[in-house]
Design brief:
heterodimer; A: about 325 residues; alpha/beta; D-Maltodextrin-Binding Protein, domain 2; eight-stranded mixed β-sheet; seven-stranded mixed β-sheet; 12 helices; globular; disordered N terminus; B: about 450 residues; alpha+beta; Beta-Lactamase; Heat Shock Protein 90; 3 domains; five-stranded mixed β-sheet; 14 strands; binds adenosine-5'-diphosphate; binds magnesium ion; signal (chain A)
């Protein structure tokens, strides 16, 4: 019984988001062949890329539609012929789309083997999940460097943290779910951390952007598993924020792109993917403002999530229900 | 030698063809067998992994709060990761209810616990390999059956197979090339034995009719054996004909000589002129017959010997000297002086008996057709080539007959009562041809005939 309730609870917020886009922008002259991009990445990051692309193919226009990762999966599965390109940070959902035959291959691309799957899914960023905190709130207490450290800190100062800790609502955010499951797979610490966050009344968010906003206003003093790239963009404007990559291991996600198997403009979509991957390999921050792919020695234990069919493990209905039940037990502390 | 032999195919080619054809066939068989085995092994490999994956999912089946749950580990699907990024599908059923996974992937219901069923199915034209297994859980209200199927595309498998096929194709080609080289080598070694026998037959002297004694391969033994018997028979019949010719010459000449000596003796005793005249005519006729018989036999001998010359070192100068000496009496009867102009050395490889015969006939002609009290010149010169010329002061050859005179039994038309058989020039011609030389009949400017033999 409880199981079914959870499933319904899972669907409600998703469907209510379906009506509007987080952002919707058009590039290039109207009344031309249109490339529709469904994406979870903020427009600000993609605008330079699209403009560079349009400079080389001026005969098309681009419509850039932004929504959450879970939404993308739902919308795209429902109407794959309405979009040409799908970009998402939820690697698991993207891989499952490819596995289920929703993508068209882009052949003969010079791209590292570990950053592509089935000639259809191409990773183009490496972004660690970070702990972001508000500098003001850490004047008296020390800045945590690891998950273990953070647990200890919240246990020692529960009043300081009460209601001011944020993390993803894994029920709403595909990326949040991916980070949570990968964390849980890697270490037991995750469950203890979740439990402690639950005890100090953690706030749950759908997206990184909102969490970072609340951090800056001081509504939150710390957020766990925020996208480092988004936080960095904000941190550059103000020195309020401190970005920490957990020293045990930062879980690192790769943003991926695929061409729809039912794309209305398959050739343009194909060209766009090639163009994006080319910009990525050039890595000029002016045309490619996202963190490029890296398997480097930047972090000793950099834990990049692999493009591997095992990503579908936690998308299994039974496993997802079980995971969310456990997660809710830990974080939603209804008294 | 080959032109007059009817040739049909070649042993070497046939052998090479059979061997290379066999090698090609073997190479193809090798390719097919290895390809089939590789396909089996590769499929076995995929099946093993699919089975491991399926079992690891099935193993986690448990009844919790009255429902069947499967909390399968990350590794269940991770182990299906391939180089070619094969796509992965699974379905988990409790009896006929889909618990999770892909609903179109139905699990067979007839799979016994602890058993795995493998089968192929297709998804939009792509082949999927499916491993299915089952487990029975005992719950509070009876047994509950869990079915799990795990499926995977076959991209990596076909990549592996293609790589193997390529390698095996190269292997097959290499095998074929090596076998072909071997075949050609074997064929040519075999035919070398044949060639060796052929050349030892060709190299033999004309007189050599002895047995072949060099060892030959057993397959060629019957051929060599019959060749040997043939040689033996040939040798036998040759000896017989030689003996026959000698015998015939003897049989004809001896009685003629006897008749002649009787006639001569009688000539001494008769006085009457008419009797003497007829006796003299008789002697002349006997001479003529004996001479004709001699020439006939000479011709027969020349014909016979020309086929197998008995080559020795011959000094033409010595030979001519002897001949002139033995013929001086005949010349003196006609008051003809024979002059010799012999250049030395004048040696050659040749059949002395035949050469003597030819030259005798030519000198004989000169003495016969030259008028009395003239001279005959016998010349041997060794440059530019070795040649012998005989000049006389007779009437010379009739110009319109020169071409035909050396034919058998052909005589000049205006020869009057000079006796002759028409074989002299024929013999000379046959001998010189057998010695790879030529005979030229010419007339001298100052009159008279000139016959030249050039070697
Ligand atoms: N020295 C020669 N001078 C003139 N004619 C010759 C001479 N030698 C040969 N002949 C001609 O060639 C013919 C053929 O010669 P040959 O074969 O020797 O036959 P035969 O001498 O028995 O007639 C002779 O009949 C003769 O007409
Ligand atoms: Mg004569």
């Amino acid at each position: 019984m409880r199981y079914i309730i959870f499933l319904i609870a899972l669907w409600l917020p998703v469907s209510s988001f379906a009506q509007g886009w987080e952002d919707q922008q058009s590039f290039g002259e109207p009344n031309q062949a249109q490339l529709r991009i469904l994406s979870s990445t903020d427009t600000s990051f993609f605008a330079p890329i699209i403009e560079d692309f349009l400079a080389s193919s001026p005969d098309i226009s681009v419509e850039y539609l932004v929504t959450g990762t879970a939404d993308i999966d739902r919308l795209y599965r429902a109407a794959p012929d309405e979009f040409d390109v799908v970009i998402s940070s939820a690697m698991d959902l993207q891989l499952k789309l490819v596995n289920d035959g929703f993508s068209a291959p882009v052949m003969n691309i010079d791209h590292p083997e570990w950053a592509q799957w089935n000639n259809s899914l191409f990773a183009f960023t490496s972004e660690p999940a970070a702990i972001v905190l508000n500098r003001q709130a850490f004047k008296q207490i020390h800045v945590p460097s690891s998950r273990q450290d953070l647990i200890q800190l919240m246990r020692d100062h529960p009043d300081h943290f009460q209601g001011r800790v944020g993390t993803y609502d894994v029920r709403q955010s595909g990326l949040g779910y991916l980070f949570a499951t990968q964390d849980a797979r890697a270490t037991e610490t995750y469950w203890r951390l979740t439990e402690v966050m639950g005890r100090v009344g953690a706030r749950l968010y759908c997206c990184s952007g909102q969490m970072i906003n609340d951090l800056r206003t001081g509504k939150l003093i710390i957020a766990y598993n925020v996208l480092g790239s988004y936080a960095k963009a904000q941190a550059e404007n103000s020195d309020d924020l401190i970005i920490i990559l957990p020293s045990e291991f930062p879980t690192t996600m790769m943003r991926t792109i695929l061409v729809s198997a039912a794309a209305p403009a398959p050739q343009h979509a194909n060209n766009f993917v090639r163009h994006l991957l080319k910009l990525q390999s050039i890595g000029d921050p002016l045309t490619f403002p996202l963190p490029p792919l890296s398997r480097s020695q930047d972090f000793q234990n950099l834990r990049t999530i692999n493009l591997d069919p095992a990503l579908m493990t936690y998308l299994d209905q039974m496993k997802r229900a079980a995971f969310i039940r456990e997660w809710e037990d830990a974080i939603v502390q209804e008294k | 030698m080959t032109p007059d032999v009817v040739v049909s195919g070649s042993l070497r080619n046939r052998l090479a063809l059979i061997l290379t054809g066999g090698a090609a066939l073997l190479a193809v068989v090798l390719f097919i067998v290895v390809r089939v085995l590789a396909a089996q092994v590769a499929q076995q490999g995929q099946d093993n992994i699919l089975k491991a994956s399926m079992s690891s999912v099935l193993d986690t089946a448990a009844i919790r709060d009255g429902r069947v749950t499967l909390d399968f580990p990350y590794s269940s699907l991770s182990m299906l990761n391939t180089e070619a990024d094969d796509r992965v599908f699974y379905a988990i059923y409790e009896d006929n209810t889909l618990l999770s996974g892909y609903d179109w992937l139905t699990s067979p219901r007839d799979v016994a616990p602890e058993n795995t069923i493998f089968k192929n199915t297709t998804l939009k034209g792509e082949v999927l390999r499916v491993a299915s297994g089952a487990r029975t859980l005992i719950g509070s209200n009876g047994p509950r059956n869990v079915f799990v199927s795990v499926a995977q595309t076959q991209d990596a498998l076909s990549n592996t197979l293609n790589a193997i096929s390529r390698n095996v194709a190269f292997l097959g080609l290499g095998f074929f090339a090596m076998s072909s080289a071997l075949a050609i080598w074997a064929a040519s070694t075999t035919s070398r034995q044949m060639r060796r026998l052929t050349s030892s037959v060709t190299r033999r002297g004309p007189q050599d009719l002895s047995r072949f004694t060099k060892p030959v391969p057993s397959e060629m033994a019957p051929l060599v054996a019959s060749l040997n018997t043939f040689m033996l028979r040939l040798d036998h019949s040759l000896t017989q004909s030689e003996e026959f010719i000698a015998e015939a010459a003897h049989r004809i000449r001896t009685p003629l000589a006897t008749v002649r000596s009787h006639a001569e003796a009688t000539l001494q005793r008769v006085d009457r002129d008419e009797n003497r005249t007829s006796l003299q005519a008789m002697v002349r006729a006997i001479d003529e017959s004996s001479r004709a018989a001699g020439q006939l036999l000479d011709h027969a001998m020349v014909t016979f010997r020309a086929g197998n010359l008995e080559m020795v070192q011959v000094d033409l100068a010595d030979l001519l000297h002897e001949l002139v000496q033995s013929m001086t009496p005949v010349a003196e009867m006609k008051d003809i002086t024979m002059t010799m102009e012999l250049e030395r050395p004048a040696t050659l490889q040749g059949d002395a008996i035949l050469l003597q015969n030819a030259l005798r006939n030519l000198i004989d002609n000169a003495l016969k057709y030259a008028p009395a009290e003239t001279g005959v010149i016998i010349k041997a010169s060794n440059s530019p080539t070795l040649s012998v010329s005989i000049y006389d002061d007779g009437p010379g050859f009739a110009v319109d007959e020169i071409e035909t005179l050396s034919g058998r039994f052909v005589r000049g038309k205006d020869m009057g009562n000079t006796i002759g058989s028409g074989l002299g020039l024929t013999i000379a011609q046959e001998v010189i041809v057998a010695h790879n030389g030529s005979m030229a009949l010419t007339n001298r400017e100052e009159g008279g005939a000139c016959v030249t033999l050039s070697f």
